[in-house]
Amino acid sequence: MDELDSAIVRELQRDARQSNRDIARKVGVAPSTCLERTRLLRERGVIRGYHADIAPAALNRGVQALVSVQVRPLSRAVIDAFKAFAHGLPEVTAVFVMAGNDDFVIHVGAQDNEHLHAFLVDRLSQRKEIVGFRTSIIFQHLAKHDPAPLPGT
Amino acid sequence: MDELDSAIVRELQRDARQSNRDIARKVGVAPSTCLERTRLLRERGVIRGYHADIAPAALNRGVQALVSVQVRPLSRAVIDAFKAFAHGLPEVTAVFVMAGNDDFVIHVGAQDNEHLHAFLVDRLSQRKEIVGFRTSIIFQHLAKHDPAPLPGT
DNA sequence: GATGTCACCGAACGTTGTTCGGCAGAGCGT
DNA sequence: ACGCTCTGCCGAACAACGTTCGGTGACATC
């Protein structure tokens, strides 16, 4: 993970669909070198994938929420089961397994408030391991798609 | 946003770096048609960008947390200012503006617990508009990078 | 039934991805 | 110092690709 790798990663974070030649030119190496570096970054698991960022409304997810969930008992079996359940629901776009008051925070998207409510009542609250959950509507979601590497120690 | 558009979007969510010809073959149209559709999806704002998904540890973000923040007064000026402030911090990877008890939830990544603590104490708690915040460590973060479109009404 | 419109196709051309042989420099043991 | 190996990089070559453009068929309108 030297300076060249970082520069390639930065470019791919910024725009994952630009050509290898463009990236090579920007970071100052030959296309073949850049391609090999990219392949290695992928192989080493530094690059986990390339994904299009889609407007939520286009996927019928105009309303988004964060749902904090507490489950009991706090056994591995229950936690893993709920995690898999939540991740499998189509409305769920992310599952956070947490330390602290809440055991999970799940990021949910639905067409409108009505569908969100239906999801909470019909899907989520059916699970018997849930002892409580709290839903907060998201007004805005500023995501940083190209987070810079933090300085090491 | 017909069936063909959805299929193209699905492929680009799954792997944004596959060739236009591959996508065209998978969705069953000519490459030129696929390219034109993709261009229009981009132009209409359905596709917002293409980004590489990078392992947090490679960016010195081995420890992640969600921080719930309350600010006062709840004026537009204060909200916008804090939002811009939070989004500008390098440790912050996402800012959620919320309805409910918390005004913001910010997604933070740091090298380790010590750096996370330093961030909270030195950066966040400096802001005078903050009247309280609560930090929860993230154990796991299962993200769905290819959320399916939800059925419309 | 003639006309206009629209989405799609397929061919063509310049550009790109990908592979491979070779070269230069670093590190190392003698 | 010398030769050796290893590693990372380069540049050329060929197959594959992106991108443009004229043409074609389907469909709606009048």
Automatic annotation (TrEMBL), chains A, B:
Q: Which InterPro entries match?
A: AsnC-type_HTH_dom, Dimeric_a/b-barrel, Tscrpt_reg_AsnC-like, Tscrpt_reg_AsnC/Lrp_C, WH-like_DNA-bd_sf, WH_DNA-bd_sf
Which parts of the sequence belong to the HTH asnC-type domain? Answer: 1-62
Superkingdom of this protein's organism: Bacteria
Any GO molecular function: sequence-specific DNA binding
Q: Which GO terms describe its biological process?
A: response to amino acid
Q: What is this protein called?
A: DNA-binding transcriptional regulator, Lrp family
Q: Which keywords annotate this record?
A: DNA-binding, Transcription, Transcription regulation
Does Ribosomal protein show up as a keyword for this record?
A: no
Mind naming one GO cellular-component term on file for this protein?
cytosol
